[in-house]
Amino acid sequence: MIIDSHVHIFPSEMRHKRHELLCLEEGFRGLYRHNNARMVGADDVIRMLDEERIDRAVVFGFPWQEVGLCKQGNDYVLESVNKYPDRLIGFITVPWKSSDAVLKECERGLNAGGKGVGELALYHQTVDGASFDLLEPLAELLQKKQRPLLLHVNEPVGHDYPGKSLTDFKALYTFIAAHPYLSIILAHWGGGFFFYELMPEIRRLSRNVFYDTAASPFLYDKSVYFAAVSIVGEDRILFGSDYPLLSPQRYCEELNQTTLSQEVRTKIQGENARILLGIS
Asked: Which residue intervals of 57-196 are DSSP H helices?
């Protein structure tokens, strides 16, 4: 089973009101102000999965900082999962805030069939200790329900690009250490956080941390796959395309060019996600 663990979808009303939404939130404007930044729906994803011969995709909306917009996106994700139950897996997005409304929306989405929460992101600002403090109630809820949390994490060095934000790795480490039983997925290779698992204490506390490959061809040489497997093993890496930003084919080509065994590639391409999400 091949599972794309990182796909964004938008309801048709959001796609049609794109220019209005650009005025509402800076994070959305930074990523979607250019017309070449595509917004797709569930039917588009199904066509992509068929063309790319991918079995399933984890889909979620945009990480709005307003609960009402997140709810609109979540309703569409849940509707899409009900329409394509054998192809789509839904995650619930909520604002990166601490409030009763956030927890209520999270519980509503999970009770309706959401398999996890994310991608959560704070764009155009540093994600620091105070930022992670805001996630405490949400983290406790997800840890209790045994559902994963997907976080947007960028590398602290290198070129700038739309959506890139800085993450305080010390604060991230503290957050991970405080929730040892919470499965945490760090998008975009965790911004390179996995390199620090060469430190025994980081590796020990990161046993429930997973890394997805979203945007990898834009960020790293293909040898990142071998490096990551060498450091964290093959069981905590998830294939994610960040579609429609990139086609899954780009990732498959790079992965097939590595010296990793077919068994390891099979785990990365879907088996790890299948086990994490409890898919039969």
From this structure: 67-83, 100-111, 129-133, 136-145, 169-178
Convert the pLDDT of each residue in 215-257 to its tens digit: 999 999 999 999 999 999 999 999 999 999 999 999 999 999 9
What is the reported pLDDT for 138? Answer: 97
Task: Give the helix/strand (H/E) hosting 21.
Answer: helix 18-22
Query: Is residue 244 reached through a cis peptide bond, with omega within 30 degrees of 0 on the bond before it?
Result: yes
Q: What is the DSSP string of 168-207?
A: -HHHHHHHHHH-TTS-EEESGGGGGGGGGGGSHHHHHHTT
Residue 162 has pLDDT above 80, yes or no: no
What pTM value is reported for the model? Answer: 0.96
- Residue partners of 235: CB distance under 8 A and separation at least 6: 267, 272
Q: What is the CATH number of the domain that holds 34?
A: 3.20.20.140
Using an 8 Å Cβ cutoff, are 189 and 216 in contact? Answer: yes
Tokens 């093959």 sit on residue? 234
> Tens digit of pLDDT for each residue in 166-187?
899 999 999 999 999 999 999 9
143 CB neighbour count, 10 Å cutoff: 18
Phi, psi of 7, deg, nearest 5: -135, 135
Domain extent at residue 126 = 3-277
Q: How many distinct structural domains can be found in the chain?
A: 1
Q: How far apart are the C-alpha atoms of 14 and 16, rounded to whole Å? A: 5
Q: What angle, rounded to 10 degrees, do the helices at 67-83 and 100-111 form?
A: 0
- Give φ, ψ of 116 to 5 degrees: -175, -175
pLDDT band at 280 (very low <50, low <70, confident <90, very high): confident
